[in-house]
Structure formats: C-alpha cells, structure tokens
C-alpha cells in the first residue's frame, strides 16, 4: 500500500467521481483507476461499488476511510513540520449572496485542509457588487451567477427554481406544480432572488396574482416562514430546511449557472482553488455520502 493510493481513494470518495478525482490529484483517469485497483489488490477488498447512478463505498471502503484520513493527515503534518516556512498565499473570494452557505462550506473546508498555509478572505455581495469588486481589483475571484468572460471563468453547476412548501402543506404531496397553481396563494418573495425579474414578468404575462404575505432578503427567514405554514416561496434547488419540502416547477423553468470567474490572469493560488472548485461535488447534501475529506496532496 502506498500513500498515493490512499490519496486517490480519498479524492474519489470526496468528489464522488473517478474523473473529478483524477483532476483533483493531477493525474489521468486511467492512472487513478489503476492506483485504486492496486490498493484493492493490496487489501484484498473491493472498496467501491460502481453503477449507473455513480459510485458508493463498500463496507470495506467505509472501514478504510477513517484510517486513510488519519494516515494522510499525519503525513501532511510531518511534511509541514519539516519544510521551511513559505510565504502565505492569499485569495480574496467574493460569494454571491443568494448561494446557500451549506453548499459552499464543504468546498472552503476542503481547500483549507488541503492548503492550510493559504489564507481565504471571503466577502458576500450581490452580483452587481461582485462585478464591481472584480473590476476594481478588490477581490481576486467570485462565485456567483454573473456572466464569466471568455477565458476568465468556468462553470461550476446549474440550479433551477423549485417551490418550497411546508412538509404538511397542500402541495407537499405533488410531484410538480405550474405557475397557475400559485394564483391567489399565500406567497413569500425573496427580494434578492436572481430570477425575480423574469418570474414577475411571466406571472404578469399569464395574469397570475400570488397573494404576497412577506418580502425578505433572508433565505433563512423565508424558509422558516414556509415551515411555519405562512406561505410558499420559490427557491433554488440547492436549499434544504427542516419541515420544508421542495416541489418541482413543471413549466416554465427558471434557473442560473453558477460560475467561478476572475479578472485578468489567474494567480497560482487562484489556479489551485479553481481545480478544487471544478472537481467539487456540488450535488451532495451537507456531510452526506460523499464525505468531504482532508486528503491534501
């Protein structure tokens, strides 16, 4: 068993994909797959179940996971203790205000564990704020729904609006709803919603008049109100909250692509972060099956 095999193993668990894991550890996918096979042969155990819906850890893989994390963490600590102190790299990162923190936190945590000597400085703002800060050089990069110029950005994932309703509400048992279902229905408006303008125009075009009971720029408050039965609200499919169920919007579809974008030539620290962001599993919930790890190289 070699250390690089454990790093490959942890990268696959974290990203939920052999191809994304290969990007993160800077090897080709065949090289990574060969390393995993060697590890499985050395342990005489199958570590991953591979299927059409993705990959999952076997019982042997779950047993290896905490030990692999400990081994890699100790190796990283020993390496850091032996190396001379390097200049601290700093990345000023703007985050779109409408992106839920629980989706971003695992990425930021993974990066800090992998690159503990790098300093991340986070600044929340609207999409207009992010664009202005980038142009003025006040941040190095931004994660949000604003357009990414050619060669100065990369798409990370796409979200779509869904209806958030109380778990025991009238729409909770539905598989999908239409905008017409919202006519005269008690509704909450997220005033910072990226799609607010186009949703409003479509409602007016169709003659649909939801009954507005609350306007807020706080997603936490909006979802708490929904859970309490005050009304329904349209939110990105990234959101989760106790007592709230998300129901698909059948038509029309509203959504945005979230990108990492920058201005000018990316710095080495930004390039490192870009590799993390593009290989991150954005679909996993919290600390679920894809278990974020400090596998750092």
From TrEMBL:
InterPro entries for this protein: LysR_HTH_N, LysR_subst-bd, WH-like_DNA-bd_sf, WH_DNA-bd_sf
GO molecular function list: DNA binding; DNA-binding transcription factor activity
Pfam families noted in UniProt: HTH_1, LysR_substrate
Superkingdom of origin organism: Bacteria
Keywords linked to the UniProt accession: DNA-binding, Transcription, Transcription regulation
Domain HTH lysR-type: from-to ranges: 1-58
GO CC, alphabetical: protein-DNA complex
Stated family: Belongs to the LysR transcriptional regulatory family.
Stated name of the protein: HTH-type transcriptional regulator CynR
Provenance organism: Oceanibacterium hippocampi
Organism ancestry: Bacteria, Pseudomonadati, Pseudomonadota, Alphaproteobacteria, Sneathiellales
């Amino acid at each position: 068993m070699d250390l690089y095999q454990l790093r490959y193993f942890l990268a696959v668990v974290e990203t939920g994909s052999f191809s994304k894991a290969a990007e993160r550890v800077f090897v080709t996918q065949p090289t990574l797959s060969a390393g995993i096979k060697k590890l499985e042969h050395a342990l005489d155990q199958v570590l991953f179940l591979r299927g059409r819906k993705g990959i999952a850890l076997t019982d042997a893989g779950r047993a290896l996971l905490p030990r692999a994390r400990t081994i890699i963490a100790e190796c990283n600590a020993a390496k850091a203790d032996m190396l001379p102190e390097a200049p601290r790299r700093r990345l000023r990162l703007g985050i779109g205000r409408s992106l839920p923190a629980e989706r971003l936190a695992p990425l930021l945590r993974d990066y800090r564990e992998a690159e503990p000597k790098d300093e991340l400085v986070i600044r929340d703002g609207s999409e207009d704020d992010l664009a202005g800060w980038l142009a003025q050089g006040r941040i190095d990069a931004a994660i949000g729904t604003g357009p990414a110029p050619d060669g100065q950005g990369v798409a990370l994932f796409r979200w779509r609006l869904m209806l958030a309703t109380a778990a025991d509400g009238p729409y909770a048992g539905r598989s999908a709803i239409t905008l017409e279902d919202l006519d005269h229905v008690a509704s909450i408006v997220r005033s910072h919603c990226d799609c607010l303008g186009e949703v409003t125009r479509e409602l007016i075009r169709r003659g649909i008049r939801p009954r507005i009971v609350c306007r807020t720029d706080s997603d936490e408050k909006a979802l708490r109100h929904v859970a309490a039965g005050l009304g329904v609200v349209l939110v990105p499919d990234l959101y989760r909250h106790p007592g709230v169920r998300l129901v698909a919007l059948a038509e029309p579809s509203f959504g945005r692509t979230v990108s990492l974008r920058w201005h000018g030539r990316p710095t080495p620290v930004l390039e490192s972060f870009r590799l993390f962001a593009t290989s991150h599993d954005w679909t996993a919930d919290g600390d679920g099956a894809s278990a974020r790890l400090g596998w750092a190289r």
